[in-house]
Design goal:
Blueprint lengths: L1 H18 L14 H4 E5 L2 E3 L4 E10 L4 E3 L12 E4 L5 E7 L4 E3 L8 E4 L2 E10 L6 E11 L1 E2 L8 E11 L1
Parallel strand pairs: 2-12
Antiparallel strand pairs: 1-3, 3-9, 4-8, 4-11, 5-10, 6-9, 7-8, 10-12
Amino acid sequence: MLHTRTLLACLLLAFAAACSKSPTNSNEPAQVASVNVVKATPEETTIARGESGDLIVSLKIAKGYHVNANPPTYSYLIPTELQLQPSAGIAVQFITYPDPLTKKFPFAEKPLKVYEGDTLVKANLKADASAQPGKHNLSAKLRVQACDDKVCYAPGALDLTIPVDIK
């Protein structure tokens, strides 16, 4: 009877160990989050009241990945997009996206417009003459969809705080 219990305990332990293996040990690809592939760093900008100025958001896209350009090659692709919330006395006039790279990927029929590595997104802001002087923080989101050379991953959005100093 003791031998049977020991054998049964060993079988249960072996079964539990087999069921608890992490997905990294299986043949399934690891899940990639688009927001973990792109790092966005806004630079503080200073604008005089009644004037305009450019704000820069530096993007660092992890090696081996790319994000879709704005505008993307196909309308169904999700572009990289900076969404800025205006603040009291600070308006967003326009956003400028970098010139894309054009690259061929096995999963696409024709070359795609993408961003890789380090790149810059710029926004032109206008401070009203009545804007309060001092430090302001604008809320922003950077929408991205990361892809590698085989597949695109679920899109995501990075929450950003954009520092603006009004003089």
